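Now for one protein, fold included:
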Amino acid sequence: MVSNVEILYEDDDIIVCIKPAGMPSQGDKRGNKDLVRELKKHIVVEALKHKIKLAGEPYVAVVHRLDRNVRGIMVYAKTKRAAAGLSKQINGNKFAKIYMAVVSFDPDKEEPQIGVRKNKVSYLLHDKVKNVSTVVDEGTKEAERAELNYEVVKVTGNKALVRVELITGRHHQIRLQMSDEFNGIVGDTKYNDDYRNIDGWSGLSLEAVMLSFIHPVSGKKLSFSTSAIGKEFGEI
C-alpha cells in the first residue's frame, strides 16, 4: 500500500487500485497529491525492494477517471500498449462499472421501489467553465447521450442505497442522473439541494465498487470489487 492507496492487482502492464475519496485521479492545477504520482512512487519503491533498475520515471497512464470526491476502483496502464488496449475497451463501452450511491428522497412522495432494475437515458451538456453539467433536450448542440441502469437495494428513512451500472461515462453523470430521479446523492453540494450530510454521513456518498475488463495484453477477463459504502449503509 502506498500512502492510503490500496493496490488490488499489478503486473508489468497494468495496476489496479482503490482511489481514496478526496484524491484526484491525476495531477491538477492545485498541485495536490494525486493518484498518478502515488502510483509512480509505489513502482519506484517496489523496484528498489526487488533490486530492479528502472529506465527513467515510471510510465503510468490515465485511461479513465473518478471525481475527486469519489472513492473506488481504478485501473492504470504501465505501458503504452496497455493504455491503447484499455482505451479501446472504454471507447467501445466494454468496461463493466458498478457504483453504489446513497441518495436522499422526499418521504412524503412515492417511496423508491426496492429490487426494480430501471434504465435511464439523459442528454447532458457540460459547462467546462463552471464545471457542471445539466440535463437538456435530445438534439441540443454539444449534448452527450448518457445511459445507466439502477436499482434501489435498501431504504432507510429518507435515504436509499442504490446500485448503479454505468453504461456511458459522462461528466458528473451518476450525480446528475440521480438528482433527476431522486433529490440527489447524499453529500453532493452541486446537484442535491438537500445536500447536507445527516445521521453521521460525511463526504459524497458515491463509490465505484466493481470494475471488470479484459487484460489488454493477456486477454484474460479481470474483475475487482469493494463494498465500503454498502457496509456503512448496513448492506452486507
About this structure: The domain at 96-209 is CATH 3.30.2350.10 (Pseudouridine synthase). The longest strand covers residues 144-156.
